[in-house]
Specification:
65% helix; 0% strand
Length: 91
Amino acid sequence: MLVCLVGSRIVPLRVDKEVLEVVDRLVRLGVFSSRSEALRELIKTGIRSYERLARIAQGVEKLLEIEKKEGRIPVRLDGSLKLLLEERRQG
């Protein structure tokens, strides 16, 4: 029986022995029905845990685009953060 998930792709993947042992254990315990299912779900979980970081990176990219377009940094820094950055440049 051939099962095709819409939009899914086959990706060769190398994993450490220890990672595969954990995946196999989860399959044996019935948490997942196969290695493929386990790896798919674990990857999705990992991606979700990095969503905040991805949103921050997108924000920084937008700020850099604005800076390039306008020729200036679009964020005004005051107070301690400004002093910290100035000290960092000097050091």
